[in-house]
């Protein structure tokens, strides 16, 4: 989902002491009631902690120096536009989206939280990276965690490598198959800046070459 200002100034805090808070500001609304009944604060906190561990592992961030140093991550549930967005260490989730979702809302919100938590922890190339790549990395994490929705595109679909979300996530999964740990290394390189040459440095080919080969692999 969309995100805002997710590059945080660091504060020296133990990486293992991240605290999680969940505030339901829509508790009296249908969506807020549905959140409490079908998802709940306790489960959401557990999901945030599990997502953090999964993201650190996916990004191969094994030491505190590899990661953003955050003391806390906060989730707010309230009526707003869209489904969710992340701003710094805060995740905002639309209660009306929860109310309107007719399927397994607990699984849906779990996947959404994995996506948004990736925005909390990922590097963004000092805001130089394509937005589509940032969103694609977040959906890549969601994919690898097993929370890809059925409506996502299939491998090989999409118009551009940086189209974002599921399209870019599938492409990054292909690239990671060419070199294990590719996404982790790409994220590491994006700590202080970004350029498309990172693909050449890691995989020996331009991103356009890789995209063409990816499309050719899955061409019907």
General description of the model:
There is one protein chain. Helix 2 (41-58) packs across helix 4 (105-121) and helix 7 (182-189) crosses helix 8. This protein has helices at 30-38, 41-58, 95-100, 105-121, 131-144, 165-178, 182-189, 197-203, 207-217, and strands spanning 3-4, 19-24, 72-78, 84-87, 90-94. The chain has nine helices and five strands; from the N terminus they run E-E-H-H-E-E-E-H-H-H-H-H-H-H. Strand 4 (84-87) and strand 5 (90-94) form a beta hairpin. The chain starts with a strand and ends with a helix. With 220 residues, the protein is α/β, with parallel strands linked by helices. 47% of the residues lie in helices and 11% in strands. It has a five-stranded mixed sheet.
Could you give the topology of this structure?
Blueprint (H helix, E strand, L loop, with lengths): L2 E2 L14 E6 L5 H9 L2 H18 L13 E7 L5 E4 L2 E5 H6 L4 H17 L9 H14 L20 H14 L3 H8 L7 H7 L3 H11 L3
Parallel strand pairs: 1-4, 2-3, 3-5
Antiparallel strand pairs: 4-5
Q: What's the rounded overall pLDDT mean?
A: 93
Helix coverage percent? 40-55%
Largest sheet: 5 strands, mixed
The proportion of strand residues reads 5-15%
Walk across the major sheet and give the strand order.
Answer: 1-4-5-3-2
User: Which structural class fits the helix and strand makeup?
Assistant: alpha/beta
Radius of gyration: 17 Å
Q: Please, how many helices?
A: 9
Secondary-structure element string: EEHHEEEHHHHHHH
- Distance from N terminus to C terminus (CA atoms, Å) equals 30 Å
Oligomer: single chain
**Unreliable segments (pLDDT under 50, ≥5 consecutive)?**
4-15
Shape: globular
């Amino acid at each position: 989902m969309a995100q805002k200002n997710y590059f945080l100034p660091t504060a020296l805090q133990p990486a293992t002491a991240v605290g999680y808070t969940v505030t339901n500001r829509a508790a009296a609304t249908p969506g807020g009631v549905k959140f409490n009944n079908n998802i709940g604060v306790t489960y959401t906190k557990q999901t945030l902690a599990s997502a953090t561990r999964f993201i650190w592992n996916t990004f191969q961030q094994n030491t505190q120096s590899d990661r953003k140093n955050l003391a806390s991550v906060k989730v707010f549930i309230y009526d707003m536009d869209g489904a969710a967005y992340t701003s710094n260490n805060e995740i905002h989730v639309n209660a009306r989206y929860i109310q309107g979702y007719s399927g397994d809302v607990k699984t849906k919100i779990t996947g959404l939280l994995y996506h948004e938590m990736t925005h909390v922890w990922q590097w963004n190339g000092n805001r130089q990276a394509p937005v589509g790549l940032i969103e694609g990395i977040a959906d890549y994490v969601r994919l690898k965690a097993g929370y890809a929705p059925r409506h996502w595109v299939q491998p090989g679909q999409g118009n551009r490598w940086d189209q974002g979300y599921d399209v870019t996530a599938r492409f990054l999964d292909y690239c990671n198959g060419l070199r294990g740990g590719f996404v982790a290394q790409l994220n590491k390189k994006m700590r202080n800046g970004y350029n498309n040459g990172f693909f050449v440095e890691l995989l020996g080919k331009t991103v356009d070459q890789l995209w063409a080969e990816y499309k050719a692999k899955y061409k019907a």
